[in-house]
Amino acid sequence: MNAEATADAPEFRAPFVVAHRGASVARPEHTLAAYELALTEGADGVECDVRLTRDGHLVCVHDRTVDRTSSGVGLVSELSLDELRELDFGDATDPAAVLTLRELITLVLDWRERPVKLFIETKHPVRYGGLVESTLLGELQRFGIGSPASAAHSRAVVMSFAATAVWRIRRAAPLLPTVLLGESSRYLGGSAATTVGATAVGPSVKTLREHPDLVDRAAAAGRATYCWTADDPDDVKLCRELGVGWIATNYPGRTKTLLAELE
After folding, report:
1. Residues that are catalytic
2. Where is the GP-PDE domain (predicted)?
């Protein structure tokens, strides 16, 4: 299996496994421990959601607020990085600090056992609008991965449910692979993905079950498919049968084992 395959190169093969917010069933989501475990379990890629803090740092937090995932309360956008670092994002047995995107990129690039891709989702709508994407591109450039020689060798993939966010990335960094996330009504015909130049589409498992022809339609248009979130073994098998390129799952180790058994 080619570990350098990207969301730009659809082909029929066993899907690559992306750890959704890390190994987020076994460890608190979006924590260093969750991502370290995912890498140890053999994940081909790791997924994160990013939001901007009040002082302009990108942190790995899914929700608009920190209420669900930390010991504190409040909007991420109204808190500084130092204030976020005072909160516990772990659990009773595994305390953890907030994870910055910079720390996650460092972890992924320093992982020497195999190349691992980083799937970064920008959240919208947010008060900072396009500043999220421009800050993200600046961070990728800081690590030398913002302008890959080709999409096939990119270590980062940028995703969003917001078509405007995908368009901003494609316009500023045309060789970075991108995924337009969303449900079937937005891209079954391919118009939205074509308009913004997305190199892959990202349906949910539910959508994939309702529209199994979506993968072939995407491939016919030169796009790969990234499916979320495939935790049930039957969903993993379906993704494999349909030729999905990348599977996002909360169980990266178990999913890798299942796919190996199906080979």
Report:
1. 20, 62
2. 15-259
